[in-house]
Each structure stands twice: as structure tokens, then as C-alpha cells.
Amino acid sequence: MGPSTHTPLVDSFGRVIEDLRISITDRCNFRCTYCMPEEGLEWLDRHEVMSFEEIERLARIFVERYGVRGIRLTGGEPTVRAHLPVLVAKLAALSGPDGPVDLAMTTNASTLRHAAVGLRKAGLRRVNISLDSLDRRKFHEMTRRDELDRVLDGIQAAKEAGFEPVKINAVIERSVNDDEIVDLATYGREQDLEVRFIEFMPLDADGPWDNEQVVGQDEIVATIDAVYPLEQLPARGAAPADRFRYLDGAGTIGVIPTVTKPFCGDCDRVRLTAEGKFRTCLFATDEHDLLGPIRRGADDDELAERIAAAVGTKWAGHRINQVNFIRPAKSMSQIGG
Ligand code: SAM
């Protein structure tokens, strides 16, 4: 299908959908406190999870029919899925309006020392790596895994494999790791990595989220600016992070201010969960099944129609700060962050 045949996916507020997040597994080898319970989360059965062929089929509709430009693989932890480079190669071969799809992945990096080169060769372009603490004890507390050294080594492996850029995601929680904001910024400056500070969102499986635990963008930026002066970069467009540059030229940071400065008006993202449910917002309370129709024999036209109809229901915005906010029944690990 040539570029001229793309039909944009437009929601009822005129937002054009160009970014697809695909969760390829609900399983994870970490148990981050802000995301998963220590034990007891029920895994999907293998047959409930989309196969590589099913993922590719849906991704092809988004990219080749609807002109989606970027796909990000996530989870759970995407690298725990066996034969991941096979999937990456299938998706990297898809072509959208700008040519090959911009294929990225979010990972905890714990296996990247041995996986990075194979993923890069298969066509993965970019990685975002979660790192919430540089203190071994606190890292262990937050992830419930004593694996800081492996993650730091995984970050080096990602750089060596040629991923460009490698970005770091750090969720900041009040009284947990807010004392490390400057340390994380220093690490990014020294390692030439963009650190993206993420406001803590109500998507934790244990459910203790409270507004008091959110460290907002203004506070994060002021804390860093007091040590390393910053200047805000021009508007972010559809990207989730507001970006700032160090005045001394030592790089940039991002802040994802989902709670204190929602950016829903510019949102161009939709999501597929590992079991093939289509979600038009991270905080949506409803999902649209695509895997059921695939397995019942739906053709691409039917799947494309279901996708377009669901996009028509995308909310104007999440309601985190409003009295009628209802938490999604799923945690971030089950949705795909
Ligand atoms: N396992 C991978 C990882 O660690 O990056 C990918 C999945 S993880 C769910 C994706 C992102 O969601 C991570 O950067 C993680 O920090 C973030 N995340 C999870 N729960 C969150 C929450 N309650 N608030 C904000 N970000 C969260």
C-alpha cells in the first residue's frame, strides 16, 4: 500500500492518532511498588496473549492503512517475551507515511547486556529505560529486585549497541525517591542521556496512590534548576514530555506531567494490551476487543472499522484531578505503560 492511501485516524476532537503502544506481555521480572503487587497478580494464559502474527497483523493496519508513524513495545517487561527479535523484525518492516515505522521499546534493561545487539540488528531504533534510583538499597526497595548494577550495565549495553537516543524514565514519588532528583539529573548529564521524570500516576496495582505522593513538574524543574539552571524548550507537540535544556549545554531533561499539567489535548496515542484489547487512553475504563474478532475470522476491513469506531470514543481527557475520576481496573503493567 503506497503512502497516498493512508487514511488518518481522527478522533471526535480532531486529534490525529499517530502513535501506537503495544504491550507484548503482562509478565515482568521486576515488581516495582508503584506498578505491581509483590505477589498475586494473575498472569494471562499463553493462549490469551497475542501471537507475533496477530500483533503484526494489527500493527500493519495501524501503520499501512491509518498512517501511524511510531510503535512502542512495552509490557510488563517486553524483553521477557521469547524470540523478541523475531517480532521486532516483523514490525520494523512496516512502512508508514514517513517510510519505515519508528520502532521503540520501553524496558527495565535488566537483560539488555545480552539482548541489545540482537534487538538493534532486528530493527529496533530507540529504547527508553526505567531507572528510579541510583542507590542500591532504594532501587531494591522500589523494584523489589536487587538489580541496580545489571540495569546500569544494560544502559551501557544499549548505548554500545547504537540505540539513539537512549532515554531514562524515572517515576518520582514523594518521600521515596524525591531526594534523588538532582542525582538522577547528574547521572543523565554525565552519561549523555536524557532523563525523563514521570509524575506518579494512579495506576499502581497495590492501590495506595494519593495526590500527596505526586511530585509535580514545577517542583521537579525547580529542584534541578537550583543546581543546574534550565530553560524550557519550545512546545512538545504530541510528545508526552515537556523538555528543558541545561543552560551550560550539558543536554536536556524531560518531565511527563500527567497529573499536574495534563496534555490530553495533544494526545496522539492509543494502546493495545497483551491480550489484544484496544484502549484509547491510559486511564480508559473501557476496552475494545480486537483479538476475539481476529480469532473468529474477521478480515482487515472489519478490524480497521472496529479500530476507527473505538478511536471515535476517545475521551477529551483523563479526569485524575476531578471528583468523578475512576481508576482503571488494571495496573500499568496490565495495560502497558
Ligand atoms: N517493564 C518496562 C519498564 O520497566 O520500563 C516497561 C513497562 S513499564 C509499565 C512502562 C513505564 O511505566 C515505566 O517507565 C514505569 O516507570 C512506568 N510506570 C509504571 N507504573 C507507573 C505509575 N504508577 N506512575 C507513573 N509511571 C508508571
Principal-axes geometry comes out as globular
Q: Which class of secondary structure composition applies to the elements?
A: alpha/beta
Bound molecules: S-adenosylmethionine
Q: Give the DSSP E fraction (strand runs of 2 or more residues).
A: 15-25%
Q: How do the strands line up in the largest sheet?
A: 11-12-13-10-9-8-7-4-3-14-15-16
Largest sheet: 12 strands, mixed
Q: Order of SSEs, N→C? A: EEEHEHEEEHEHHEHEHEEEEEEHHH
Number of strands: 16
Helical fraction: 25-40%
Cα-atom radius of gyration: 19 Å
Cα end-to-end separation:
30 Å
Q: Summarize model confidence as the mean pLDDT.
A: 95
Compute the number of helices: 10
Low-confidence stretches: none
Question: Would you write up a description of this structure?
Answer:
The chain has 337 residues and is α/β, with parallel strands linked by helices. The protein is 28% helix and 19% strand. The protein has ten helices and 16 strands. Strands 11-12-13-10-9-8-7-4-3-14-15-16 form a twelve-stranded mixed sheet. A two-stranded antiparallel ribbon has the order 1-2. A two-stranded antiparallel ribbon has the order 5-6. Helix 3 (112-122) links the parallel strand 7 and strand 8 (126-130). The chain binds S-adenosylmethionine (SAM). The site of S-adenosylmethionine has 20 residues, from strand 7, strand 9 and helix 10.
Describe this protein with a few key phrases:
single chain; 337 residues; alpha/beta; twelve-stranded mixed beta sheet; 10 helices; 28% helix
Write the layout of secondary structure elements.
Blueprint: E1 9-10, E2 16-17, E3 19-23, H1 52-65, E4 70-74, H2 84-92, E5 95-96, E6 99-100, E7 102-107, H3 112-122, E8 126-130, H4 136-143, H5 148-160, E9 166-172, H6 181-191, E10 194-199, H7 217-225, E11 230-232, E12 242-246, E13 252-256, E14 269-272, E15 277-279, E16 288-289, H8 291-295, H9 300-311, H10 332-335
Parallel strand pairs: 3-4, 3-14, 4-7, 7-8, 8-9, 9-10, 10-13
Antiparallel strand pairs: 1-2, 5-6, 11-12, 12-13, 14-15, 15-16
Helix pairs in contact: 1-2, 2-3, 3-5
Residues 28, 34-35, 74-75, 77, 106-108, 130, 169, 171, 198, 200-201, 203-204, 332-333, 337 line the site of S-adenosylmethionine (SAM).
